[in-house]
Amino acid sequence: MEDIAMSYHDPQGRTQPCFAPPPSLVAPERKGASMSGEALAIEQFDAIDLTLREILRDVLGLTPERTDEFTVETGLFGHLPELDSMAVAGLLTGIEDKFDIVIEDDEVDGEMLETYGALLAFVTAKLSGE
For 5, phi and psi rounded to 5 degrees? Predict the structure, then answer.
């Protein structure tokens, strides 16, 4: 993923550090529209963030208030009792289904599940084809 330092507002309205999704995430049909490519990329990143929080709620049975408080530093595997080894399979399946991507076995490691930010970066990279 490109290292374009940016920030976004989480569901609680807090500014969170992040890396912008690569330009390849910008929908081609919207590229000449009233939004700049960067603004559209941020809009798509926000949509990915909200969808990922929804998947975590559905798979792990978390409340919206709890997932809304997640920051990029929030620990996942080993920190959330709900995210045990059995739940990881459900989480990955949920991500594949909602985002229409395929996650290969060799792409799954402890690093991608270490924090919410790492998982968000992984999904964003997969969607951009990286």
Answer: -70, 130
pLDDT tens column, 79-101: 999 999 999 999 999 999 999 99
- Establish if 30 belongs to a structural domain: no
Measured in whole angstroms, the distance separating CA 129 from the mean position of its chain's CA atoms is 14
Q: In 10 A of CB 67, how many CB atoms?
A: 20
> What is the CATH classification number for the domain harbouring 116?
1.10.1200.10
User: Cα(42)–Cα(26) distance, rounded to whole angstroms?
Assistant: 9
Domain hosting 108: range is 5-25+35-127
Q: d(Cα 48, Cα 126) in Å, to the nearest integer?
A: 11
Number of domains in the chain: 1
